[in-house]
Design a protein that fits this description.
This protein has a single domain, classed as Aldolase class I (TIM Barrel). It is about 45% helix and about 15% strand. It is globular. It has an eight-stranded parallel β-sheet. The two termini are about 15 Å apart. By secondary structure, the chain is an alpha/beta fold.
């Protein structure tokens, strides 16, 4: 993915997370093998969290921002130090701005037309969202005509269907509670969260290595 090479093709998505707990999540998740974490821009204090923790991210690790819906949010995210952007929708202005600033962008799309437009506009990868509405079979269908486009499955991805998505041809997945552990996030249990991340990453390595 351009400047963002992942050994483990998983992106951790954090939305609505407490800013104090966010620092702990980053440290524990990176230690357990997760290489890319995105915090959504509509999370309280998201810009401050990224700007304050950006300097602690080591080589081979990535801290980005998601739910980038428009050019204004793209500018705010990049100014805060986001190392990659993820969008839920297709906005070519966001893609252009990211490219101009050398920041990888994973652009959101759903229909075949949107997937192609996102790729044609210069997205590094295309996020198929929401995948829980269609499942792995939809990915496989998209890759019939668009076999050169690296797709990222987001929405409804879990440990139970992870292998199906990789078998269908995705290059990466974006995951939230299935990765970090819903109870661990709610209870702010960093030990349980670290164990959940470790388990998911190991499973992800196995599933992605088969393809």
């Amino acid at each position: 993915m351009g400047q963002m090479q992942l050994n483990v093709p998983a992106i951790g998505i954090l939305r609505g997370v407490d800013s104090v707990f966010f620092s702990e999540i980053l440290s524990a998740s990176y230690e357990k093998g997760l290489e890319a974490i995105e915090v959504t821009i509509n999370t309280d204090k998201a810009l401050d969290m990224v700007s304050s923790l950006r300097s602690k991210v080591r080589p081979g690790q990535f801290l980005g921002m998601g739910t980038i819906r428009n050019l204004e949010e793209a500018k705010l995210a990049i100014n805060a130090g986001a190392m990659f952007l993820v969008t839920p929708n297709l906005d070519t202005a966001v893609i252009n701005h990211a490219r101009e600033n050398g920041v990888p962008v994973i652009a959101g799309a759903f229909t075949p037309t949107e997937v192609y437009q996102a790729w044609n506009a210069g997205a590094d990868m295309v996020k198929v969202f929401p995948c829980n509405a269609v499942g792995p079979g939809y990915i496989k269908s998209l890759l019939g005509p668009f076999d050169e486009i690296p797709l990222v499955a987001v929405g409804g991805v879990s440990r139970s269907n992870l292998s199906e998505f990789f078998d269908a041809g995705v290059k990466a997945v974006g995951v939230s509670s299935a990765l970090f552990g819903q109870n661990a996030l709610v209870k702010k249990d960093i030990n349980a969260l670290a164990q959940s991340v470790e388990n998911f990453i190991e499973h992800c390595r196995q599933c992605s290595s088969k393809t």
